[in-house]
Amino acid sequence: MKLSHDRVSAPGFAKSGEWVRWLKGVALLLCSLFATSTFATTLMVQQTAQEPLLSLSFSQTPRLSQVVIEGKNALQKLPSYQETERSHQSDGIFWPAAALLDNAKQASVEQLKTNVTDQLFRLYNEWAEDADKKQAIDALLRFIEAQDYGFRVDVNVDHDGLLLGQHPNPLLDSHYTLLLPSRPSSIDVLGAIQHSASSDWASGLIISDYIDNHDRLFWYAERSHVVVIEPNGNTQSVPVAYWNNADSRLVPGSIVYVPFTSLPSTFDSLNTTIVNLLKLRMM
Fold first, then answer.
1. Which candidate among 7, 206, 209, 237 keeps its CA 20 to 30 Å from the CA of 106?
2. Does residue 56 fall inside a structural domain?
């Protein structure tokens, strides 16, 4: 008995050319679907680090200006936003502290925070015999552990500047958080001082006015300068000694970091590492 095998073909595609064209069409469709899924941009909009308010998604890769404008507009439609009293700025957003954060790179931020806290714990143990130094490390650790941090995308999140074409306007193809905080009202003084604390911001005060309210560690605090970390993550070294005191005023929400001196050699990079972390703080 002779067995025969019929050729299997798709219904409606009698000619091999039509079958191949159909397969190519399906392949292109699938590729387009996967491409859209792969490059879709998502955006979490927040006013504070602890409170995600809403989520947006973009089927096509948006530019920075679109992300900022749509995020701002969506935020302002929320009842909780509309009920908030706004006395300092018309749209209720403190743009000097606004930030775009890349959620895909958050692991590197967490690693940096772990690195800082591990070093501070080790320094705390090395200075175990000195109560003032232990107190300074403990206060700094408490502050650092209480904050939230995010990977800042190196772009200028300034609504008006983007509309006027004053800043670069790149395409964004990842998963982001847009932080649009309200105006802060304090200045944080940290580092080689006995009591890290917040002070009320006032327009007439200069940097030395804030640090004069704190006792710096006698032999272990930098006396000639401090590092100012602004809400947008920018930093500057500012002279504060009596012979070179700069008449510098602070942006609300800034951090004044007093560097440690005379550190053990294994902690040579500690000040730099701490500042690099504080630059990523979410308001």
1. 237
2. no
